[in-house]
Amino acid sequence: MTGKPIIEAFFDAPTNTISYLVTDPATLKAAVIDPVLDYDPKSGEVDTASAEKILSAAKTRGVEIVWILETHAHADHLSGAPLIKARTGAKIGIGEHIKDVQRIFRPIFNATDMKPDGGDFDHLFADGERFSIGSLSVETLYTPGHTPADVSYKIADAVFVGDTLFMPDYGTARADFPGGDARQLYRSIQRLLSLPPATRLFMCHDYKAPGRDTYAWETTVQEQRDNNVHVGAGKTEDEFVAARTKRDATLSAPTLLLPSIQVNIRAGAFPPAEANGVNYLRIPVTFKSDSRIGKAAG
Q: Would you say residue 292 lies in a domain?
């Protein structure tokens, strides 16, 4: 299989997420990578505008979406995968280590409805597994560290790296979520940086580093090797781990962490509706002392 994909990016400002429509020009088969479902945490209101933009673009171009690819179970936005699957029949794929993430979070959210061993997803990709988008060959690269389940997707000279890397002037992903590991993250990044220098890398997020006025999401392996503020210019693993751990200790939880995780480990589905027909998201409560306000007497 040969050829290069046509890549169209869709930037979601509220979550600083970039989703991609990746098309095989020979067959007009396509994949959507990391789609967003709009969710207002203040009102609980869900909207599909972000996913609709991708579907509209595909329709305009006469493109058939056959895959929805998640790089990991995101902690900062809800996945729009179910809507796209319902409209197109595309399969939802993610790395096979989503099973590890589910084991961590299933008891936290008491998600007893969740299918075991990643069964809510249509396909779980192993490291090195290849599959096709039309005549394009896709290679799955296991790149854990940000979470235990992160994968990157290599399509010709383009790699979609999820949250493993950011633009060179912004650095790298945090590694302090449950199951995250800064040493794993460093080694995953080195795997990506061992690719040919001209390989194009596509980010899942951008936050405009200080001094930069515009959002950006495409760079190259060589640019990352030379200029990444966290791993560039020969930073050692120990140096990276020390700096990453120090920085992570200062970061607050993402605004959409709790709704995102419990939806995304279900392949973008909400917990089942309760007897009144309403879907509810759960917020685990942690008490800092033995004094529980509202605890029943006796």
A: no
Query: Is residue 239 situated within a structural domain?
Result: yes
Residue linked to tokens 């529980």:
292
Task: Report d(CA 249, CA 232) in Å as an integer.
Answer: 22
Would residue 286 count as lying in a domain?
A: no
For residue 196, the number of C-alpha atoms closer than 13 Å in the C-beta half-sphere is 7
Structural domain boundaries, residue 163: 6-264
**Burial of residue 137 (number of CB atoms within 10 Å: 0-12, 13-18, 19+):** middle
Number of domains in the chain: 1
Q: How many residues does the chain have?
A: 298
**Span 136-195, pLDDT tens digits:** 999 999 999 999 999 999 999 999 999 999 999 999 999 999 999 999 999 999 999 999
* Mean per-residue pLDDT pooled into runs of 10, the chain (298 residues): 86 97 98 98 96 98 98 97 98 98 96 93 98 98 98 98 97 96 98 98 96 97 97 92 97 96 97 96 85 55
Q: Residue 245 domain-assigned?
A: yes
The span from the CA of 279 to the CA of 266, in Å, is 14
Residue 166: closest CA among 216, 114, 103, 91: 216
